[in-house]
Fold each of these.
Amino acid sequence: MLLAGKTVIVSGVGAGLGHRVAETVVRDGGRAVLGARTAANLAKSAAEIDPEGRHTAHLPTDITDEAQCEALAALAVERFGGIDAVVHVAAWDSYFGGLEDADFATWQSVLDVNLLGTLRMTRACLPALKERGTGQLTRRPKRSRPTCPAGSPPTPFVLSGDETSSSSRDSWRDDAPTEPTARPSAWSGSGSASYQSPPPRG
């Protein structure tokens, strides 16, 4: 199986995309560690995906809270021995609007979830990913982006949610920094980044 023996953290697990991602991880032989703000949603998803609870673990997690991100990463390590991949599904994608009528307080909240929240969750998982030597980070796929109302561009979402795929592009090369470099950059689209520890010197 493709993910046999692999542990994948999935943020933003509810009734939609997050549930399907976690379900796919378990179906393909992996262990899924589920995070989301609502405990009831997490318990329901975990029970549907893995009734015996052998291949899943879950913990209420708000990605705007760094301590909660660290707790989810710690759960994955404690229960399954490490982290091999992180799939970021959690996002605030329901606020639309352009610059002229922008509510910047809401924009700031969107940025805190979609940009900084994603980076918080990534940083919490980095020690375990580096311990494995390789890892995969994936932001929600572009095809899952919401359809915005006519005449109302999803500006805050575009500025905050999709560019995080480019925030840690660097692989761990022989001449690379010892950890990924965060480079928030707007308008870059969603995707994934792979990480591999540099080979031993000498």
Note: The first strand starts at residue 7 and ends at 11.
Amino acid sequence: VRASQRADVQSFYFLADYHALIKVEDPARIQRSTLEIAASWLACGLNPERVTFYRQSDIPEIPELTWFLTCVLGKGVLNRAHAYKASVDKNTAAGIDPDADVSAGLFMYPVLMGADILMFNAHKVPVGRDQIQHIEMARDMANSFNHRYGEHFVPPEAEIEESVATLPGLDGRKMSKSYDNTIPLFAPRAQLQKLIGGIVTDSRAPGEPKAVEGSALFQIYQAFATPAETDGLRQAYADAGRPEAWRLDRHNVGHVETAEDRVEHLQRLRDLQDETKGFTAFICWTFQEENTRLRVEPAGAHAYLRTQALARIFLDNFDNVQSSWVTQGPKIGQVALQHGANDLGSIMLEENVVSSAGTRYRMTVPEMRQLISELGYEPRQRDNEYRLMNLPA
């Protein structure tokens, strides 16, 4: 999707319903899967006005080209195809006919893929590392055809993004519908939670540093995150054993979570704090929808204050609970000091974090001092570790 947004790239994306026939014989399932995959592409940001987006079966020239390529490709090349060899090896190990249950469709699959690529003279094909062989086969087909009939096809090159060269599935193997280990984008919330909760993770105890190598969760996250976000998670894995690296928990409410989700989050925080003593403060924020694709009814001050008060009672092992005037405004931030918060927050740091999501509240040091004094409290300045300083606020 990122490559499709470049002005110097002409991109082609298709729904491989012919390929699906190799393993799926239910027409209704293929139709449903085609629509779901199309919706997934669009949901992930593919803009059909910038790319050619089509269904494989709508282009009759593709199976026609498949036959032409079949006539110029040696059978020995297909004998070495990974999918075919895997089936043969499995049957051989079971002591049955090596070609048992191997359809001609499975055997010829690389030729159809070659036709998909060569039809549009693709120069580069983004693939996982396990698909490199198919690109090499497509090059063989192009060169063989060009040798016989003249220069008609561009020999394609594989383009591999190393960070997602082979994306792991739920069971740690390569993510594939054949292994039934994918994460369905449009699955109900409960099903998604169950599937993701079943991913095998590092067995080291909470609080111990974790390695990103071999971590399925990290690799899946890396496939969607920016380089900066990936570096942040990598550092978080390494810092897991250093409680001072955690310091704050920002609890965001008012998006798609339920009341049960909020309580579960608080319970996990309290358990983790009991184990590590790593957090210095808890901050409750409300979801800000500007510049996001999530459209929900804002939580409002009432929900914010209820959650703030609940957190103060529930998180009895947290020394500090911070108000969030940056999402609720100065006055509600002041009221939060009467709902469990013992800290009004800072001036600029939090504003820079959340202003990109639509907050417009601003406050000066004298204004903060006044809000605190109006409640009968003494304003004091602190450092980032929530240690009181000798300086006046």
Note: Strands lie at 12-15, 52-55, 124-126, 157-159, 247-253, 279-286, 321-322, 380-382, 388-392.
